[in-house]
Amino acid sequence: MSAQASGKRITTADIAARKAGEPIVCLTAYDAPTAEILDDICDLILVGDSVGMVVHGLPSTVGVTMEMMILHARAVMRGSRRALVVVDMPFGSYEESREKAFENAARLLKETGAQAVKLESGRYAADTIRFLVERGVPVMGHVGLRPQAINVMGAFKARGRTTAERAEILAEAEATAAAGAFAVVVEGVSEDLAQEVTERVAIPTIGIGASTACDGQILVTQDMLGLFDWTPKFVKRYAALRAAIRAAAEAYAGEVRRRTFPEPAQVYRLDSGKPKKPA
Ligand code: KIV
């Protein structure tokens, strides 16, 4: 019986076994209540370093720290019990050396209880992935548009536009799989490139802006819930939370200003020993 069927947490092996099978459903979460809502719907919850942009208001993911990832991953672990929880390694925590990567990956697993880490896997990262996996750290790779490389890439735009870029992305994905990653995120590439990557690697590809050719999909939860005015082209909004929150806040503000909130139902009536008024 798989871990999924027995009601235990989904494992990295369960996800790896879904290659070319039932599509893998993934979303991000950064807090306990959201994780609790998503837990039985998603196969995998990513505590993405996108937290820096969508929760902390940073201009990119570059400023995200280990402490931020640990704090948010702990909350997600408290809120979930079934989905596989994967934590992003923040920029600067794994590129310098494989030893430093192991030290930080081990911290993420030990201090949060999450089961795996994700890192953006340019070809240089293969050696680090192998080092981590051999030492007991399951790794999910991330190729194509790599948001942590924004200062080199110049903009958050689709990649694989030239023959050289396509070849580089294919090589990155193959090196990531060969190094022992259990899955790989493929971000911001055309459908035919996503298809080629998916055919070439033996591990599941999780697409974001990469078409249905991938073995699974991931979106940033706040994006797909419609929390922001602007979202990238590849985001489909499944709710209009920004409008709903504004409408609720405006209704509340109006009632506070008119002194119609709180209503009697929200007011404590304690029997404080004060003499009761005669009926
Ligand atoms: O940080 C993140 O949320 C991610 C996903 C968008 C794949 O890396």
Describe the structure.
This protein is of the alpha/beta class. It is 38% helix and 13% strand. It has an 8-stranded parallel beta barrel, surrounded by 5 helices. Helix 4 packs parallel to helix 5. The radius of gyration is 22 Å and the shape is elongated. The termini are far apart. 3-methyl-2-oxobutanoic acid binds next to loops.
Please specify the SSE layout and strand pairing.
Elements lengths: L11 H5 L7 E5 L3 H7 L5 E4 L3 H4 L11 H14 L4 E5 L9 H15 L3 E3 L7 H9 L4 E6 L5 H4 L9 H16 L4 E5 L3 H10 L4 E4 L7 E4 L1 H4 L16 H17 L22
Parallel strand pairs: 1-2, 1-8, 2-3, 3-4, 4-5, 5-6, 6-7, 7-8
Bound molecules: 3-methyl-2-oxobutanoic acid.
List keywords for this structure.
single chain, 279 residues, alpha/beta, binds 3-methyl-2-oxobutanoic acid
In short:
Helix content is 38%, strand content 13%. The protein has 279 residues and is an alpha/beta fold. 3-methyl-2-oxobutanoic acid (KIV) binds next to loops.
Helix/strand order, N-terminal first? HEHEHHEHEHEHHEHEEHH
Spatial order of the strands forming the largest sheet = 1-2-3-4-5-6-7-8
Which of globular, elongated, flat, extended, rod-shaped describes the shape? Answer: elongated
Query: On the 0-100 scale, what is the average pLDDT?
Result: 94
Tell me the major beta sheet: 8 strands, parallel, barrel
Query: Between the first and last Cα atoms, what is the distance in angstroms?
Result: 67 Å
Radius of gyration: 22 Å
Task: Please report the number of helical segments.
Answer: 11
Beta-strand residue percentage: 5-15%
Instruction: Assign a percent range to the helix content.
Output: 25-40%
- The residue ranges in which pLDDT falls below 50 over 5 or more consecutive positions are none
